[in-house]
Structure formats: C-alpha cells, structure tokens
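Q: Convert this sequence to structure tokens.
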Amino acid sequence: MKLAMAFLFWGLCTQIGLGQQQVFKINYSLKVEENSITAKRLNQDSISAEIVTNLLAGMQASSLDMEAYVNDSYALISAKFPNNDIQLQHKKTNNSYLLLPQHKEYIHNSPEQIDQQAAAFQITYIADRSKVIAGVPCKLAIVKPIGGEEIIEIQVWYSEQIPAFYWDDYSYLNQLPGAALSLGVQGLHIEATAISQVEIPQSRFEIPADYNLITGDESEYTENNDIELGEGFVAYYDSTASRYGLMKEGKVLTPASYSSIGEYIDGAFIVSNEEFLTGILDENAQVLVPLTYDIITYDSQLKAYIYSKDEAFSVMDKQGKRLWKNSYPCLAPFIDQFAIYCQDDKVGLVDSSGQIVVPANYELIGQYNAEYFIVIEQDIFDLYDLKSKQKIFGGFKTLAFAEEKDLFIASKDAERFGYVDKQGHTVIPFNYSTASPFYDGKAMVTKFGTDEVSYINIKGETVAADEQ
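A:
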C-alpha cells in the first residue's frame, strides 16, 4: 500500500441508489513532530494544552483510529478511542448527535449550541500557503480562542474539494470552506492518511430507534465511561480517583491508577500515567515495559513498538527489547516498506530495520513508493528517484501519484490540474479544477471553470463511469 492511497480530488457528494449515500471516507492517524515532546510541559489550564492532552491520549491508545464519512448532507465520525462513540451531523439542519453505543443513548447538540462553541474561536486564513495531504491539495488556516492570552495557535490544513465537517468540541471546523485534513498544535497532528469514495447505507446517518435521548446533567457521566478494549477487556473508570484500571469479564486486574489504557493489541496494552509517561502491560496486567517512556505506539506494519525516550525515537518489542541500533529525533508510522524520519529539522526515509534509505536532506516528503519520492520545498513539489536519490523533474505547485505506473497528477498553480509522465511531460492537459488518481483505468475530473464532473481514461478520453 502506498502513502496516501485512494485519494479523490472531487466534490461530488450526492445521494445515489435506494437508501445509499455516496461519501468521502477519510482515515486519520496521529503524526508526531520532533518538538512534540514539549507538549507535556504546557500549562494544563490552557485550551491548547487540553487539545494536546487529548492528542497524546489518542497516541497512547496505540493509534488514533478515526474514520469520517462525509458528503454535502451528512457527516459520520467514528473513533475507537476513547469511548467508541459516534458523532452524526445532519448538515442541512445543522444538528449534531453524539451516539453512545455502550448505553444505547444519544446527546443532541442544537444549531445554536454548535454556533456558540464555534464563535469562541477566531480563524485566520493564510494566503499563498499550500500542501498536499493524502494526495489532496490543502490550504492553511490558523485558529485561536478569542480573548486568549499566550495560547498556542492551532494549525488547520483544509481542502475545499471535500465538504466541511467537525468532530468532538472542534465545532469551529464547521466554519471552514472545506474539510480539515490536518489539525495540529505543538508538533502533534491529527492528519488524514487515506481518502476514498464509498457508498454506505442511509441508515448509518440515522439515530437507531432503540436509542434514548439524554439531556442536561444526565450526559455528564458519559464523559469518562468504561472503555471496551477488545477480547473481553475493559478499561473501567473510577470517578473518585479520576483514573482508569483494567478488568476482564467483571474481574478487576489493576487498581484505577492510569490516565489511559489503550486497545488490546499484540497481547498487550499501552498505558499512561498523569505525568504523560507510557509503558506496556501484558494481558495479565503485569508490567512488561515500565512507564518511563514519553511515547509508545504499536506499528502494525512493523509488528513492533515505536517509542520515544530522552527525545529520541526507535523501535522495541513488547518486552522492551530494543530492535534498532539507530534512533532519530522523530519517526512517523510505517507505510508499506518505509517511514519518514527527521534529523536537524529535515526529513528522510528509513526502512523496517531502521537503516536510512533516503538521507534527511529535505523540508518535507509528501509521498513515496518503491520507485519514487516527492519532495516539497518552499511549497514547490519535485519528483526524486528512490534508488539514485536524484531529482527527476520538479517546479510544480502540486504533485501526487496517479496510481498508474509512471503517471502523476500535477498542477503549476494549484488551480488547474493535469497529468504528467516520469519525465514531467504533459500527458493529459491541465484542464481540470480537480483530478483524482486512476482506479480500474478511470479517473474522476472536474472541468476547470465548471461543475462538470466526468471520467477519463489514461489517454484523457472521456469514458462512462461504469466502463472497464
């Protein structure tokens, strides 16, 4: 699988078929930058610190496993952490509902409540800043709480190609011209990793008939519920201690002494304490790795644990045995064969053994696969050969894999898109305001200056949507 697989650059989100909705599916994960270690030193009374705390909690749950399904009419946001809750947005009426599956209950947020929350924040749009996230061109907005003093800015990268929506308490995201694909503060980012087109039943956006509405103080207890971790394990919440403990099938395995307990993965749990330090417990609640690490997260590609300690990232097994000789100031999750690492404020690529594949000589690496990597320097995109590390061509404002061999989506101005070959020569002219990768030999495009959406083949010829 490639980094940023299954992206779409189009905005057609309409109801199709009987009882079906065509939507964008967006997968998010947590990205960590070198300076994220300072997050735990923030003033816990500040709004920004609260956001960082929430991000860290997601990281300590082994990964931020969040999916969003969105079109012009609806949004559904589902996250395994912390409470398996589901958020629904009915965008035509601006109503929002938080579903609590464990209790078969839901909370209703009215348009007035949503607007009131959003009004507490100020959004500043940054001109001439762009980047590609999950293959989609994005613009930058800076969000600050109104009236806040010395509060760290929230960086939001959004795409106008996907309808706006929000999750949790971040109702200000609803005010953006498009979907937030990256939300970050203090070096931690909730960021989209894959975007695809899917169809889901209309019923997914409806409140189940057996759910009961709760209001007012009734909803307070849901803020810190017991959390199902899988395989019968539960993180139970002690409101007196304001901590979590581990139990299985009603049997308490640990006292409530942890700030978070992650999902049951690889026969173990990642846990954290009030000092934001993490460790690993086995299925019998015995300590495998002491809580002395700044960050621990399970990497499903490596089938091992990426950790940070003393401001250095490396990889270990669940017993705490170090698997790599090398360490780096920061390390992203693995996608297929490689992961992005940083050194001296530059990034490169390492392989699964921790060996450097591409030296950290670049401002940003947007995408990579087994043959190429795309470098972004001062908002300019260049293509490099992975084997030789030599630049092949560049100078584009947008460049992304087109999912056809040696073919790339490109734009010279981030407004008109077309397709180029591995020499940078134009294969399909820059006649589109949106252009997707190719799937089954077809790409979805929008003709520039119109709302006309169509499909093309790799020759640029218009084809039917169902044509093979």
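Residues 22 and 152 are 37 Å apart (CA to CA).
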